[in-house]
Amino acid sequence: MGKPKIGIYGLTGCAGDQLNILNCEDELLKLFDIFEIKSFVMASREKDENVQLDVAFVEGSVSTEKDLEELLAIRKKSKILVAIGHCAIYGGVQAMFRGGEEWIERYKRVYGRENAVTLSKPLEPKPLSAYVKVDAVLHGCPIEKEPFLKLAGKLAHGVIPRTPDYPVCAECRWKENECLLLKGQICLGPLTNAGCGAICPSLNIGCIGCWGPIREENWASEADLLVEKGYDIDEIVTRFSVFGGTERAQKLEQFLRSRKEKGNG
Ligand code: SF4
Ligand code: SF4
Predict the structure, then answer these.
(1) Ligand 2 pocket, 83 CB below 6 A?
(2) What angle do CA 51, 56, 62 make, to 5 degrees?
(3) Are residues 132 and 219 in the same domain?
(4) Is there a domain that residue 161 lies in?
(5) How much is the pTM?
(6) Which of residues 156, 176, 203 is at a domain's end?
(7) Is the pLDDT of residue 3 over 70?
(8) Which of 58, 177, 224, 238 is most buried, judging by how many CB atoms fall within 10 Å of its CB?
(9) What integer is the mean pLDDT of 152-173?
(10) For 3-42, where are the E strands, in sequence order?
(11) Mean pLDDT score of the chain
(12) Distance CA 237, CA 256 (A)
């Protein structure tokens, strides 16, 4: 059996996930030893796009027609597709907007006219799973070296890894931090995927949710608590929407405004 063939790709995003893979300096040679890397544009101009891949790692959101074409081609030639980083899993900050208007209205507001940028037609930014089957995910914004290497190791042995299904609060409690929410600060730890080691709350900074919303989040309960602590609805909704996507922010806003109208908020 030959080495597993892999490709590392980037759609619309900051390329931070690819950069962090490159930053695995001490382990890069081992990675090259274990895998046959067929495409990794950030590391090499040489690439072979006609080969069938065992694993494709894809970062970035689908934000243009070109992204979509690339993603469909990657999916077609890959046995396993792994979404890496917030943009690929949730759509990224580019999928965050308030109000119900279409992308074209926002685009015109920013660029002044409809066809200001002509590289590829924009689409409403979406995660990979909106268009193709995603077999595994690696959270982070950007992803971190250790979890990536663990994931790569499992994939090399043919195991499709599962990600932790508990919130940042668990890691924060293991570190015996004093809870910021109880001190009156906004912290999205209860709603956010664990894995970062609760870096921000450990430095007395509220979590802004960059590892993305956990599967069974109870945002209503945290929103209620923040209203109780005196935060206004706009601030809460903005905070929740940065890494949580538009749909969640809209639901939250409706929830808080209707509570307020009924006199409960
Ligand atoms: S500080 Fe934040 S992450 Fe830590 S326990 Fe409190 S809410 Fe959770
Ligand atoms: S914002 Fe939250 S999820 Fe992101 S690194 Fe900080 S603690 Fe971790």
Answers:
(1) no
(2) 115
(3) no
(4) no
(5) 0.89
(6) 156
(7) yes
(8) 58
(9) 91
(10) 5-10, 36-40
(11) 90
(12) 9
